[in-house]
Amino acid sequence: MKIKLFVWMAVVFSCNLWNAQAQCNCKETLQKIILKIESEYPGFNTKTKDKFLYETLKKNALYSSENVRTDEACLEVLKGYTGFFKDRHIWVLPNQINQTVPRTETHTELLNINLKKFRKDIQKQKDEFEGIWKNDGYEIGIKKLSDKQYAGFIIKADPTYWKPNEIKFRLFSDGSYEYYSQDHSIQKGKYQMYDNALLSFNEIKSIFTKQLPSPALSANEMESKINEINGTYIKKISSKTVMIRLQYFSYSFVDQIEKLLKDNKKMLEEAEYWIIDVRGNGGGTDNAYRTILPYIMTNSIRRVGVEYLASPTLIQTSENYLKGIAKDSIKNKEDITSLKTRIAQLKSNPGKYVNYNQDKIAVDSISLAVKSPSQIVVLADNHTGSAAENFLLNAKQSKKVKIMGIPSSGVLDYANAMFFDYGCNNYKLLMPTYRSFRLPDYPIDNIGVQPDIYLDESVKDWIGFAVDYLEN
Any stretches that span the bilayer, and where are they (predicted)? Predict the structure, then answer.
């Protein structure tokens, strides 16, 4: 159901809380984070059974916080405390909203250029960078300034933040870039050009497509290449085997994955074997892989449920999200009804654990695809986490799937993370909101989902190994 998305979307609403909070010194910040974790973290009681060890850690952290003089040093103290729980769904990170540099002190520079003349000139030259480029939010012109530098300048963008001809980024001959964010602060990294048509800023996951001069790639070819750059693509690697690369299960990739499967349906149905590569997939949403299950499963899926800690933050954030989706009551009718029921359950059980579905175990029937591969290998590594680990647990229940690789990341016992308001705006606190009914019998955190076939370090080519396993 779509309601599964509500907590992630609620993060948007919870972020609005930060502007109303106070600046705190390091000790005040740590004290409030401690209070929040001790009262609202679903794993707190389980992970602090050794009271002496926990209290000692807390005492030392508080002592260290008294002598901190910089934000960076404070962040290390905060991470030292939260690191005790060994839960990678607990994050403390700087609050960028609070740290935004005032516009008058940021990097703003206009490029002196005649756009009409520039459009005409670029049609005659063959420089791979010079031209007009676009992504979802910007139309950019790239002009060569010297043998060592190009400037990307604004043609069209949100006028709240940008003026025409303002420099958006600089490209340097050594492959590095300076990219000016919406607040005009600088981000640095490496760029890469693909097929003289796609410009990728690797660290910030932003890709621009060339518009003028007309690129050699068609629109469909560009889309396929972008998918490949983003680690989401399908490729036939032998006469019998197709590989599906899924590096992300983030919400922004849900529609892309569904379209990818639809566009390649014929190839997928004709393939005797599949390799699904989820190495490096840190998770996102279970909705991302739902369209794959009919092809790989052989039976229903037995799913272990979760229970949510009815904390003030979860209740407030849920109510905030309800207000948002209520603006379109017709489109969101089902979600509104379901969410109201959940909020009522939480309010009736403050400080207790709530199982929305009542049953601890659910059996999901899968409408199996008419045509599907006879065998599937799923490749996973120690960077496969969260929702991607849920995918592994589902896939393991199929009679025709083998998990191959090394143990996964191990971040699944406490999940569905959101930002928690704890009273200070120096740093953000992200925490999980539920715990799995697998506990304590079948923990995954810091252990990982175990592969059916372990690939030791002598195996350099995992895909080649998988093809050989399937076809020979």
Answer: none
Phi, psi of 321 (to 5 degrees): -65, -40
Report cis status (omega within 30 of 0) of the bond before 451: no
Say if residues 208 and 220 touch (Cβ distance below 8 Å). Answer: no
Q: Distance between CA 413 and CA 294 in Å, rounded? A: 26
Contacts of 393 (CB under 8 A, 6+ apart): 449
> C-alpha angle 99/103/106, rounded to 5°?
80
CA 403 to chain centre: 23
pLDDT averaged per 10 residues, the chain (length 472): 43 47 88 97 96 97 94 95 96 68 56 94 90 94 96 95 95 96 89 94 91 90 89 95 96 91 96 98 93 96 95 92 88 90 96 92 94 98 96 97 98 93 92 96 96 97 98 96
Question: Which structure tokens are listed for 312?
Answer: 């003030």
Q: Let me know how long the chain is.
A: 472
Q: CB–CB of 175/191 below 8 Å? A: yes
- Pick from 26, 2, 1: nearest CA to 325: 2
Q: What value, to the nearest 5°, has the Cα angle with vertex 243 and ends 453 and 390?
A: 55
Reduced to 3 states (helix: H, G, I; strand: E, B; else coil), residue 434 is strand
CA angle 223, 225, 229 (to 5 degrees): 115
How far apart are alpha carbons 276 and 295 in whole angstroms?
Answer: 12
- Answer whether 413's CB lies under 8 Å from 8's CB: no
Q: Is the pTM of this model over 0.85?
A: no
* CA-based end-to-end distance of the chain: 40
Name the amino acid, one letter, at 418. M
Q: How far apart are CA 63 and CA 56, in angstroms?
A: 11
* Omega before residue 443 within 30° of 0, cis: no
